[in-house]
Amino acid sequence: MAGIVAEGLGRTFVVRGQGRGLAGALSGLFSRSASSKVALQDVSFSVGSGEAVALIGPNGAGKSTTVKLLIGVLAPSAGRVRVSGRDPWAERPAHVRELGVVFGQRTQLWWDLAVVEAFDLLAAMYEVSAADYRARLSRFDEVLGVGPLLHTPLRQLSLGERMRCELAGALLHAPPLLILDEPTVGLDVAVKLRLRSFLCELRDEGRTTLVLTTHDLEDVRAICPRVLLLAEGKLLHDGPIEALAARLGGRRIVRATLRSGVAPGVLDRFPGAELRGDCVLAVPLPEGHAAAELVRALVTQLDVLDLHIEEPAIDTLVARYYEGRP
Amino acid sequence: MRLRRLLVQRLKTRLAYRGDVFAGLLSAALLGVVGPVFLLSLFANVPHLRGWTGPEVLFIWGYADTVAGLFYVVFAGLYDLNRRYILTGELDRLLIRPVDAYLQLLIDNLAFEELPVVALGGLVMALAVSWGLVLPGPWRLALLPIWLVGSLATLGGITTAVACLGFHLQHRGTAVGLVLQLTTFTRYPLDLFGRPLQALLTFGLPFGFAGFYGAAFFLPENDFAVVGALVPVVGVAALGGGYAAFRLGLRRYASAP
Question: What average pLDDT does this structure show over A215-226?
């Protein structure tokens, strides 16, 4: 089983600048200014084995850097990280044997090989026994539907088909830690749902630690009870997504569609209520109140046709939060 | 076992692009024939060059060409290391697999279509023999495969170190092709060239061991056979150095967003 411990983790990159235009490019041949960019700074967290965690944050927040430190592709410039007690970078050969990786943006398989050939190769690389290999392949066929794709070269698959294969490929050696970097990017809803339900199944089995980065908060809601929010290389939040929403001032909103307009004065009974158009009333749910109470109050006092409870738009809240940062 | 699987898959991938294979064959044949034809016509008019006879020079050329052919097959990945792996972050793909990344780099880029160059080099060495080259004793001749591998390791090791500059410089181009131009000289006896060039190819970038010196070890009585005896040692050292440069580069590797 794979637990993760990160302590004061940091990573700095060297960025070489280049002047503008042709003159800049030419002078760049002889001298280039180098500056350093802090991608990650003093990040500490720990993930229990079998836990599912999502890394979220805007572009350039340090999600990918964190992932790469966990994979062992990058060496940290400060602090330390341990996966199952190992240093991913220094002990990479042993570390990657127990690791599955899926990059949404880049393939981990081989463009020119038929999927089954790539799987054969992975099975050989990770020394998966023939019996295990067969059993896992038939399971992946069942839940991910990779069977019909096996004999097609990877480059001829659609993105959705490819991602299913990538996931199967990453799990062929039954790694105790699975890292997914934006696995649902660019996928249609049907494939997304399929991937999510598979990951949930995997999480519920409890044998695989899941670390997921995503911009799609539906992924997070469905798969990961716990969220690490990164921004500008720092860890801003570690906990359930609902707690994040509450912290950012997000509230659930009850939206009622009314048969007719609202009599003056009625609005005052619902603090914060706001009319959208003539017949739609949006009422924020006061903190500490159950939605049922508010709904009952609305139904008894108004002529309500339809009711709808809106979850807080965390994307918007999070985005607003960054923009408001000093 | 794992290695064999990797190799077989690579072969299959390459064969999938049959066009490349045939184009490779053709261009190798054309390019490879020019050199020997030049030497043959040269020695039709001149009896020797600085004491080197025609068959001797032809043998050196054949030896160096065999090594170059093997190099193209085995180390083709080095040409792409900077552009395709380091700058794009594609190296990640190799690093997450439980097989040595350097080995994967080579295997993923094995260029079987260059094998004809190796055959051609062998053919030219045989031609030199049939043209009247005095062969060494059978024991020494039996060492030829080991020396070829030693020369290959020298060439591969030095080139690896050069290619690994990409980890540190963040430049788009690569010096690999440029540096390999120097091997043009090591296809001929090095004492034909000036001292500085000789020194460079012996001590600086010791490509001499990937061609001339290695071949000299098998030629009758010459001053360079002693140096040529060092080929396996130089090979091990160069490849070890190249691998160390690669490991050092990984430390600097910054992947890509």
Answer: 85
